[in-house]
Write a structure and sequence with these properties.
elongated; single chain
């Protein structure tokens, strides 16, 4: 098997850095920053996974891999619970398009169409845990493929 492309390690490192940085931001005071970091980390690990698949199959990486909506297709949902007029309301961002809109909103909060992004009540645990698991899994997978040589 050919040597692992440096871009895979770069994407893996970037994903781990984003996860580590998100873990340093306490919730709920830094939720928007944390969401932005987790979404960036997800994009990096999704690219790394696609590049690993292409590397193993010795095929070129498809250009669609780098499209933002494509990168979020397997991402877990991010939800937010808030109280409106005494009733609990839950917003869920579960599709690639939803997560892309959320990413745009948290990167530039002044452009957010929905003011609720500024409120508390974000549930990021599942997303954070799945990102960590994907990083570990991809790292382990690469190590196993390296041993095959």
């Amino acid at each position: 098997m050919k040597k692992i492309p440096s871009s895979i390690n770069a994407h893996l490192s970037r994903a781990q850095e984003r996860l580590d940085e998100a873990n340093r931001h306490p919730s709920p005071t830094s939720d928007l920053k944390c969401i932005a970091l987790l979404l960036e980390g997800w994009k990096s690990i999704a690219i790394a996974e696609e590049e690993v698949d292409a590397w193993v199959e010795q095929m070129p990486v498809s250009s669609s891999v780098y499209e933002d909506v494509h990168l979020f297709r397997t991402a877990p949902a991010i939800s937010q619970r808030s109280t409106v007029d005494g009733k609990i309301q839950e917003s869920t961002y579960s599709t690639g398009h939803d997560l892309l809109l959320l990413q745009t909103s948290v990167q530039d909060p002044s452009s957010a169409k929905d003011e609720s992004v500024h409120e508390r009540g974000w549930d990021l645990d599942a997303f954070r845990n799945e990102l960590g698991n994907k990083i570990k899994w991809t790292t382990m997978l690469i190590e196993q493929y390296k041993k095959l040589d």
